[in-house]
């Protein structure tokens, strides 16, 4: 009989599970309130959702005094299904903060497309997905991990295809759904293999049990390890599981694309870290080389794909950001692969989290500016950004700053330091070849980031456009700008995770 069947769950620590719970409850409140709120007051639902996400972020503060766990086994209080440790809290801050900024962007998008996007359903889906994303990094058994992954993913499918009468949106949602379901099915098969050889779903117990697998079950265990990683590799948009990204980002509303680019990646990477470093450290010889190869392939395909967009032509800015996000996913995979070759996995994992925090801030900022430009120029082509400085100097300067951060160039100091941290993790782990591949890709990425940045300051063709900013949209751009500039001025706020580890 399995350890799950033998266990009796302890009482619930409501403070520990407050962040994802608040987001879920507010989502239900918004869905019910939508039935009673008139069309002229639908904007209130957005403000309630923003407030709910803000409270969810604030609910992380009481948990900073030490690790807390709940849903633990009666026979062993150290084996739990939910643990709010330092790693979980940092990722929860990232996903809930990212969801909050996406919500601010969404208020403007819903105002502009009120007939196409149902507001009550939109906010319910966004909050539900955010709740699942916040649950995942604290999950410490494979069942909870997969449930959290699906809670984060299923509403996202609907968000992509929620726009009424938009064929491109529906096609993007279908492609996203089918590919994700296939990846999840493969992961579930892998989990069943792991459970078959260990008899448990708890990550710490799997780490102990899988080391003592009978020789006849070694092949089954290795197959389980590989298959389990597939679903999380899909969420990170790692090649060859990246094909859904460009069409999905372009077909989705811009705030949803921004949400997927940051929160969706955080979900995938946190799950990948938990499965590899916590549950399967003894199989580092299996997942280490696989992730190193995926990192090299992902950053190369992503950057070459972005380069092919030829930013001076009439290509979509969101599609360029989509390919860029695939390339950035490759950089994020590097330290996780390095953890397999390191005596202490904490420092490489800290490098991944530090890079993810930098990426989240500046990438959401770039999408926020894209949302502003799209209000005046719905096609949102890269060529539409020509002369942005003449029309809106501060907006152009901020977008240029965000792009330079993604490229790793001054004055985007935080982007430079984050890349150096990831590069160092590869070198310290003895992955010199991967560090060389990363260096080459950074040079490739410079071309399209700098070309787009230069376009902002070129003379406009004709009279400069006037961009119509709303208060929520302005707040989102300002928050990301302040955060990016603050981190560039004091990069130790993020980079300390790379020095001290997380677990």
UniProtKB/TrEMBL annotation:
A GO cellular component annotation in the UniProt record: endomembrane system
Main location: membrane
Entry superkingdom: Bacteria
Catalyzed reactions per annotation: a quinone + NADH + 5 H(+)(in) = a quinol + NAD(+) + 4 H(+)(out)
Keyword Transmembrane on entry: yes
NADH:quinone oxidoreductase/Mrp antiporter transmembrane domain mapped to chain residues: 139-444
Cross-referenced Pfam families: Proton_antipo_M
Keywords: Cell membrane, Membrane, NAD, Quinone, Translocase, Transmembrane, Transmembrane helix, Transport
GO molecular function: NADH dehydrogenase (quinone) (non-electrogenic) activity; NADH dehydrogenase (ubiquinone) activity; quinone binding
Lipid bilayer topology: Multi-pass membrane protein
Keyword Transmembrane recorded: yes
Transmembrane segments: 17-37, 44-64, 87-110, 122-139, 145-164, 176-203, 223-245, 257-280, 286-308, 320-341, 353-374, 394-418, 430-450, 471-494
Cellular localisation: Cell membrane; Endomembrane system; Membrane
Region forming the signal peptide: none
The enzyme's E.C. designation: 7.1.1.-
InterPro entries per UniProt: NADH-Q_OxRdtase_suN/2, ND/Mrp_TM
Gene Ontology BP, a term: ATP synthesis coupled electron transport
HAMAP family: NDH1_NuoN_1
Annotated family: Belongs to the complex I subunit 2 family.
Subunit details: NDH-1 is composed of 14 different subunits. Subunits NuoA, H, J, K, L, M, N constitute the membrane sector of the complex.
Role according to the record: NDH-1 shuttles electrons from NADH, via FMN and iron-sulfur (Fe-S) centers, to quinones in the respiratory chain. The immediate electron acceptor for the enzyme in this species is believed to be a menaquinone. Couples the redox reaction to proton translocation (for every two electrons transferred, four hydrogen ions are translocated across the cytoplasmic membrane), and thus conserves the redox energy in a proton gradient.
Name of the protein in question: NADH-quinone oxidoreductase subunit N
Organism: Streptomyces poonensis
